[in-house]
Structures
1.
Amino acid sequence: MPVMGPDETERAALEQQISAYLRVMTAESEQIGRAFAAVHDVRPTDFRALLHVMVAETAGDPVTSGELRQRMGLSGAAITYLVDRMMTSGHITRESDPADRRKVILRYSDSGLATARAFFAPLGMHSHDAMADLPDADLHAAGRVFNALIEAMRRYQDDLASFTPPERAAD
């Protein structure tokens, strides 16, 4: 095994620290999601679905029920039940895809969007306050780091799609 020089050791430590921060952010985000679910009387799975709908819509690529089913790893019946439940609760709507009228996409309803904005606005203010003293160059660098981590996570998901777990050894 090659010996790492001081620069490589520092780089490895920085990458490990960023990975640790990402895990902490994921855990904190999970807690906030649970709080949203509890306050708005939705299930944690519903919150995950709402998050997927929001991420897709924000990216300009709204999600279909089938795509949501795939992202969440649910059966067709389970996703139908989940989408129906979220529509009944007023969080999302189904709309014809303007690019392909045969497709139906999921979108936040106006009331669902208002609910999400009201809940998450204070987090936005806390985030703004936390970053207020950081120079723009740091924010640009953080953006590049987040984009790199997102890409790494997407590549890993692709790897997992073809992953075959080893057979369990006999006990």
2.
Amino acid sequence: PASFSQERLWFLNSWQRRDSYNMHWHCRLSGDLNPDLLRQSLDLMLARHESLRTGFVQRQGLLWQEITPPQACPFEFRDTDEQGLETALHKLAGHRFNLDNPPLLHATLFRIGERQFVLSLTFHHIITDGLSMAIFIRELSACYQALTEGETAKLPALPLQFADFAAWERRNLQGERIEKLLAYWRQE
């Protein structure tokens, strides 16, 4: 099952039909960046984190997570200038995701000079939050660094995935406990 927060975001997304639930991140990079290794690093991240390749479907009145097998991250590599960059970043931040068709992440690498780049990542908020974004960037950097050195990133094994948390949350927030919490918020 989806978590309660995923259920809320799915409802708001389907009700409002807008892109305001995206999380957009971009940064400037300089030097000898290898776009192919960056693409491979993104693919490694999708393989590592199930939430990045999760879609959402309704069955029997409940919202369910459907985790797809590892796949390539949607990735574009474009040449542009500073003017075109601002327009493109604004457009990418508003990317409209179909929540039942993962991955809910889109990456674009812009080359704006001989050794100047901007990496843009757009996620739907249903699969990430601010803290998770920081972890994603740190792990993506580790994967890229390892690949440039011809090695494998030494990231710790993940004992749990987000779907494990969502199942735990559903088991532990039901019956009298959930009714008590809901009663509090209804009163507020």
